[in-house]
């Protein structure tokens, strides 16, 4: 770059000298003419400029060289390592390239699913040794009850011979493994299934393959794709990065458990000039910080849509609003598939049946932290706006119906989890019984478990009322269990 700059300056000076009608003492002092004893470097084609007019004015062998003393001295480049992670460098690079802040949604998406550095991409974040525990990791009964729901829906669909059983964001594959294991006795159901795991993380795909006890069939037939089969129920299993990649043309039973909460949200804050989107920027001390957008952003269209669905008095009392365009768009995709092919979707997540204000949170090793603290080292999630899901689905087609939400406690209780835990307690050790009671409370209880006698910091916390369940189905199949 320095060489190009010098050449350009030299060329400009030469052009000025050759075309100027008067000589300039200042310019003469700035441009030095050296004798033929100059170094070989000064005689190279890149540094030598010869012209007939110059030859007439100066002796043969004279060349033009550049006085570099007046050039801007670039600061020395530091090779000292920085403490920034690769993801932090990547985020700062995006902000610098854009010349301004990025949305909270883009920040969240990069942190969770960046192909190289994303939180979900290269690690197992679930369970006691991970960053958070999900319902399937709490007890096998959760996956079993979801299996009961799926079989009931299949019955209402008329027992089709071919069904896509789709799980969005399957985590370790625990839910699907418990579902298939408990349903394996019902051959007519499992033989109709083709399991589709929608998962973008290669690390989790391998873990799911292992936990579903999958094996790849040996098939030497030309043009025939090799199948992967789960030994839990003899069902074929496929993996996809997106729901749109799951084959259509047959009914689908879609399960989205703690999937919507990880979809990126846009945050808006009420200001004197109206609703402004909250953005992530880099401060002068190179730390991430929140700022407000000075003008409307593309996500404002989704804010307007969300406000249209809410009562004016609900919006008036809020100082902040979260909207999730990807949740709205995903719901429309699900509803369109169900409308065309039949089937249904079950959505279970923590959230609200109304406008969500300010819920975005970061969890690292089961503790809440600042969401801008060391991005990529913690899970980011936000409350799910179930009212928004309902409206998004209902706008797609009159052929679908939306049911719920109801609490997870109501959902699991109506499907028979109380009877299931009693049956399991009949034939187990004392240690297993304690684990069953603890798991049961976490799934359906509220607050701290009253029976707990262990350390206070390990007391089971019930998720029964914090989590909500909603179903989207084709109207032809009637009202799904247990939403009647």
Automatic annotation (TrEMBL):
It catalyses: L-arginyl-[protein] + 2 S-adenosyl-L-methionine = N(omega),N(omega)'-dimethyl-L-arginyl-[protein] + 2 S-adenosyl-L-homocysteine + 2 H(+). The keyword Mitochondrion applies. The keyword Coiled coil does not apply. It is found in: Mitochondrion. Its main location: mitochondrion. Coiled coil: none annotated. Its EC number is 2.1.1.320. It comes from the Eukaryota. Pfam families: Methyltransf_28. Keywords: Methyltransferase, Mitochondrion, Transferase. Belongs to the NDUFAF7 family. Arginine methyltransferase involved in the assembly or stability of mitochondrial NADH:ubiquinone oxidoreductase complex (complex I). This is Protein arginine methyltransferase NDUFAF7.
